[in-house]
């Protein structure tokens, strides 16, 4: 309970609530698009570098490889569960359900970054290789969603003007993956001595930048909710709240079976529970242009992201301690 | 003054490359892409900067060319607009320097 209260009253969550409230109240406050994108790249560089430096200190044990593989399997499987729930409980058609499922199989790097801060403030350790797990969990869900959308349907003709490989370029070379994997590799190669030289830029201001970024995320979530809520019925909103819990439970069960430490367990639960709103929406516009962004983006950004930030992370942290404590 | 055809396509940013490929393949002499800031249609407003993925941003493609290449792209662009969000219009315009188009 104390942990949940501490999370809710942290500057990060409060700045997010400020942005969300401002957007819902139709405030004119905006953060310029280019600046927000710069902040996102900064956060991904910082978390990638930190993960890489931590990886340079430890060996690649069999357990590390197993967790990496588990992350990929989770990302492939979660959309199947999400798709089944959506088809059973909501009126979404196959295309919208598959596109939404892709978002819930992929990850939100901002939720992951916020979770690493909460884990640290709770006095727990997390491993650097979890950043690699995050990067590996970005793309597989998109492939599963494409299979789900096309299963039992006639093969759709290619869209006019499309080029072979354009979807895979978008999926595998999007900014999140390039920056995250690149920074991870640079941190791994340069190690602690390299990090010391850039720590005044990447370590000390990190939490402040995260607050600024979460203010923008709050604005985006609020604007998304305001403009897209009409597209969501009760069953869709409920899905946005229970699906993270189902995914986190699955992530927790896998972490328990692998015997990884509490901090890593919490992070695997967070990765499973989070829903993408950067890489997957862009891929979906190319792969499934008929799917409605007002459904999948409003759900992942307007419902699941705030839920995970305010309620989910402390809950996953509590259960991770219970499982591995 | 010399008569040409002006094509204006407002389309979602994610389909921009597809539209540009169609124009280039058809042999239009050139085009310009502009960002669209906000708009209204089908009962709802949209605007740039709504989310970090920028997947819902719209762009405007303007191309001025001879009638033949513009007519050539219409069918393909129609197919593209069956899948992607966008609108297309063409108009007769007059240009000062025809050799530019």
- CATH architecture grouping of chain B: 2-Layer Sandwich
Helix content of chain A: over 70%
CATH fold annotation of chain A: Na+/H+ antiporter like fold
Structural class of chain A: mainly alpha
With strands numbered from the N-terminus, the spatial order across the biggest sheet of chain B is 2-5-1-6
Low-confidence stretches of chain A: none
| Tally of separate helices of chain A | 15
Number of helices of chain B: 2
Kindly report the oligomeric state of this protein.
heterodimer
- According to CATH, the fold-level topology of chain B is Alpha-Beta Plaits
On the 0-100 scale, what is the average pLDDT of chain A? 90
Give the total of domains of chain A: 1
Topology order of chain B in helix (H) and strand (E) letters = EHEEEEHE
- DSSP helix fraction of chain B: 25-40%
How is this structure best described in words?
The complex is a heterodimer of chains A (325) and B (101). Chain A has 325 residues and is mostly helical. Chain A has one domain: Na+/H+ antiporter like fold (Up-down Bundle), CATH 1.20.1530.20. Chain A is built from 15 helices and no strands. Chain A has helices at residues 2-8, 11-24, 33-57, 62-89, 94-105, 109-121, 129-136, 140-150, 166-172, 175-202, 206-228, 234-258, 262-273, 279-287, 293-324. In chain A, helix 6 runs antiparallel to helix 13 (262-273) and helix 12 (234-258) runs parallel beside helix 15. The mean pLDDT of chain A is 90. By secondary structure, chain B is an alpha+beta fold. Chain B has a single domain (2-100), classed as Alpha-Beta Plaits (2-Layer Sandwich). Chain B has helices spanning 16-26, 67-83; strands spanning 2-12, 32-35, 38-41, 44-47, 58-65, 86-95. The longest helix of chain B is centred in the C-terminal third of the chain and has 17 residues, at 67-83. Chain B is elongated. Chain A binds chain B through residues 30, 32-33, 36-37, 40, 159-163, 166, 216-217, 220, 223-224, 227, 277-282, 284-286, 289-290, 293-294, 297, 301, and chain B through 12, 14-15, 17-22, 44-46, 48-56, 76-77, 79-80, 83-85.
